[in-house]
Amino acid sequence: MTNLEVVKAMYEAFENGDMKAWEDLHSPNLVFTISGDLPISGTFNGPDDVIENCFSAWAEHFSELTFTGLTFWESGDTVFVESKVVGGDFPAEGVLEIHKIVIEGEKIVSFQDYFDSAPYLAILNKN
C-alpha cells in the first residue's frame, strides 16, 4: 500500500469502528498525540494505549461526532489530512482539524492533531 492508501484505510477503519483493522495499520511503537486539555488529550504509546485510553474517552464524550470532508496531502513519508468534525452541538459548518501522520514501512508511526479545543470543551460543559 502507498502511504496515502494506508492513511485512507486508517480513517475508514475508525469510522467503521473496526479497531482490529485500525490497529493493524499502526506500528507497535506508534506515538499518537491529541492536543488540548480534553478527556481524549495526551500522548499515547502504541495502538492498544490509543484504543483503551483515547478512543474509549472519545466514545464516552464525543460519540455523536464524525469526520467528514477529508482532504489529503502527501509529502514523502508524511500525509497531512484536513477534516471537518461535524455532529452533536458543533456549529453547522463543523470544526476544522489538521492531522499530521508519518508512515514507515506501510505502518503509521506517528499521529499529531492540530485543532481548536474550545468547541469540544463547550460540549463537555453542556453535559
Structure summarized in a few sentences:
The protein has 127 residues and is an alpha+beta fold. The protein contains 4 helices and 6 strands, in the order ααββαββββα.
The radius of gyration is 14 Å
Count of distinct structural domains: 1
Q: Output mean pLDDT.
A: 94
In DSSP terms (H or I, runs of 4 or more residues), the helix count works out at: 4
Question: Which CATH first-tier class would you pick?
Answer: Alpha Beta
CATH T-level fold name = Nuclear Transport Factor 2, Chain: A
Largest sheet: 6 strands, mixed
Shape: globular
First-to-last CA distance: 42 Å
List the defining traits of the structure above.
single chain; 127 residues; alpha+beta; Nuclear Transport Factor 2, Chain: A; six-stranded mixed beta sheet; 4 helices
